[in-house]
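Sample 1 of the test manifest.
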Amino acid sequence: MDLLNLGIKSIFIENMIFAYFLGMCSFLAVSKKVSTAFGLGLAVVFVLGMTVPMNWLLNEFVLKEGALAWLGADFATIDLSFLRFIMFIAIIAAMVQLVEMTIEKYSPSLYGSLGIFLPLIAVNCAILGSSLFMAQRDYTIGEATVFGFGSGIGFFLAIVALAAIREKLKYSNVPDGLKGLGITMFITGLMGIAFMSFMGISI
Amino acid sequence: MRQSNTYIIVFSLILTVVLGGLLSGVSQVLGPAQKKAVDLDTKKQILGAIPAEKAALQSMTPEQILARYSEVISSVVADYNGNLVTTNEKGEPIVAENVNIEKNYKKPVDQRVFPVFKYSENGEEAYIVPTFGAGLWDAIWGYVAIAPDLETIIGVSFDHKGETPGLGARITTDEVQARYQGKEMYDAQGEFVSIEMVKGENHSDSELGANKVDGMAGATLTANGVNSMLKNYLGYYQSYFDKNVRNANAMTLNNN
Amino acid sequence: MSTETLEAPVVKEKEALLSKRRKKFVTDPLNDDNPVTVQVLGICSALAVTTQMKPTLVMAISVTLVLMFSNLIISLMRNAIPTRVRIIVQLAVVATLVTLVNEVLKAYAYDMYKELSVFIGLIITNCIVMGRLEAFALGNKPYDSMLDGLGSGLGYSWIILAVAFFREIWGSGNVFGYPVFEAIGIENFPTNGLMVSPVGAFVVLGFIIWVQRTKTGYVEH
């Protein structure tokens, strides 16, 4: 029940985009068409769902203070948490590379639609952000997995919704200076207000 | 040559060693300063629960704060049943200031340890106890200073990780924390009721009474978090107070 | 122009320390080619930390430093980095620099460290940093790259400071934590809760982009 709660929380209430502004770069850059937004969204869900639990293992058994206790009592006091950033980003970059190669080999059609976004994902703040949040909040492995997928789905929903709005926006008469990024900012703000209505829900 | 596998592997290895070495070096060098910063931060928060001390903290240097702390605070650690403990399960000594309340919070309640900080300055005394709980978004925590009658709150200091700025985050302001001063955690019948922050703002004192404080408009969920945090932790400390303060007082009375 | 002649090089063939070409590296990203409002990079942190000016300033300084030095280091190594693993090499260098910033903050500015929490770590994935490394540092000399990093850093800094200024003054009536409205005698300034919430950030940045693009005449199609 707690897990379900956490899942819903990470999708709607603590949406990566609207509550934490993470992953904004690709959110703004790749939301011009619904089909591409859909592809990027799926890739993010996938990578987040994989990397958060993986980084959890890394954090739990290597990086955390006292995490090396399984090596013997001498190692119990070692605190490697200063290596957290570099290790997390290494795992993410490696995972993205791996996913890219696997998809390229086994499903060229999926690669065609998803492949171009994969390099973009390595530098998507939402991915690293989720891992850092996971470490900071001391999640369990179950929570970490749910949180990873939940955040990914939250990002997916947000980017597809924005792309749909932007497609319709082509027919609107927007002032010159506001075209593109400017109006997108306002729309994102309004969507944020909508998402705020989920605030405080607990199941 | 630049693209050969051997070159890539050697390059990555060298890079890893250089960067890893650099980082561990820096972390070794800065380690003591970081420990000091954490220590100072904890002590500042503990002292901050006493309103008179909090006002003075602003203009003090870190050294003065540490000196002041060791001058007026002494600390003990109790277990869930209120018995004093000095060592952890591994037999290492426990220092109250180093007890990580957040890590403790994850354990089942009867396995946690409960630090108590005794404040004494010019005959004025207080028991300062740490509290920890969940707010609307993330963790909230604080220190509560209790008068020697074990009923009246002298002051509180709260902090939070991610409450909404301007709404729930107001628990860190002096304005909100001052509302707790002088409130009591026992009702007229002598039952433990903790202190409750009510919904909505601008209640009159007569409306609130001794066990309730005025709420924060628009931040009822954070207030609920604060309420359950106080109720839990002030409750946990009752067994410590029963065994070590009330009993001890009773004994001295008998001796007289 | 005057700086150019003042800083005239001793050796004739060598380019001036701050030649016109080099000055452009610093000044271009401030306005015409601003990383945030024109190139749409680094928005995440531009919005997340800007509820108050003080953490924003710390963030701006951190990002500028990381940008300068990662540009410098990558530029120094540009002929040695194997192309196939260049992204991960860049990430490793940036992550190291960010960890340094993080550790220093933790040791000497613990309050800021607590306030910024994960957002310092997220400088690693700030697209401005990776963008500049890919687009500039991999193909240019170290000193030029450093100037380019400084320029982009400053361009980023003034935008986030501007956003933070409006959010703090409307959201909590302060500037750098100093209650300006009380100081000039306006008690009970009606603060707007929307400004401190994420929504305020989007709206303020939207307006800044609008004003700036109207001035520069840049239109996105």
